[in-house]
Amino acid sequence: MVAALIPQPGDSSRYLVQQRLPGGSRALLWEFPGGKVESGETDEAALARECREELDVELAVGRRLWEGKHTYPDLTVELVLYACRWVSGEPKPLGAHALRFLTPPEMTALPFCEADIPLLEDLVAGRMELSR
Ligand SMILES: Nc1nc2c([nH]c(=O)n2[C@H]2C[C@H](O)[C@@H](COP(=O)(O)OP(=O)(O)OP(=O)(O)O)O2)c(=O)[nH]1
């Protein structure tokens, strides 16, 4: 799984997060935009494609910021987070229940997917090199 850390244009202390749809797996939990890497695809191409499909935005995918593995009862997820920036488009919740721009401390107040908990801890603690 690849996921995007996308700063809000004009306020780089906030990042885009989305709430999963009701009814499916991890229903209504929060996550970073992204999805599965298909065979033959690079992480960067998969992330750009997922964000085009899910949000209708064009992104430039930058550095790998974080990676971790989590086992759910139904699925083992290897999650890789990439620093991204906007190229064009206004985000629309095409594949999500809701979208928000939040600071990392605000994110920790929401119910996130379990795989994201250590990621959020590192983000809040400043253990990710966001600007380089
Ligand atoms: N995009 C994204 N997915 C995440 C994050 N954290 C996390 O555990 N996941 C999990 C939730 C899903 O089980 C899976 C994402 O797969 P997906 O977005 O392609 O899955 P989906 O909702 O279309 O369908 P599915 O899980 O029901 O097969 O990874 C995250 O931060 N971003």
Automatic annotation (TrEMBL):
Cofactors required: Mg(2+)
UniProt-listed InterPro entries: MutT-like, MutY_C, Nudix_hydrolase, NUDIX_hydrolase-like_dom_sf, NUDIX_hydrolase_dom
Enzyme class: hydrolase
Keyword Coiled coil (UniProt): no
Domain Nudix hydrolase: 1-125
Stored Pfam families: NUDIX_4
Reaction(s) this enzyme catalyzes, per UniProt: 8-oxo-GTP + H2O = 8-oxo-GMP + diphosphate + H(+); 8-oxo-dGTP + H2O = 8-oxo-dGMP + diphosphate + H(+)
Enzyme Commission number(s): 3.6.1.55
Keywords: DNA damage, DNA repair, DNA replication, Hydrolase, Magnesium, Metal-binding, Mutator protein
Classification via CDD domains: NUDIX_MutT_NudA_like
Family, per entry: Belongs to the Nudix hydrolase family.
Annotated GO MF terms: 8-oxo-7,8-dihydrodeoxyguanosine triphosphate pyrophosphatase activity; 8-oxo-7,8-dihydroguanosine triphosphate pyrophosphatase activity; 8-oxo-dGDP phosphatase activity; 8-oxo-GDP phosphatase activity; metal ion binding
UniProt-listed GO biological process terms: DNA repair; DNA replication
Alphabetical list of PANTHER family matching this protein: 8-OXO-DGTP DIPHOSPHATASE, NUDIX HYDROLASE FAMILY PROTEIN
Gene3D superfamilies: Nucleoside Triphosphate Pyrophosphohydrolase
Protein name stated in the entry: 8-oxo-dGTP diphosphatase
Originating organism: Hyalangium minutum
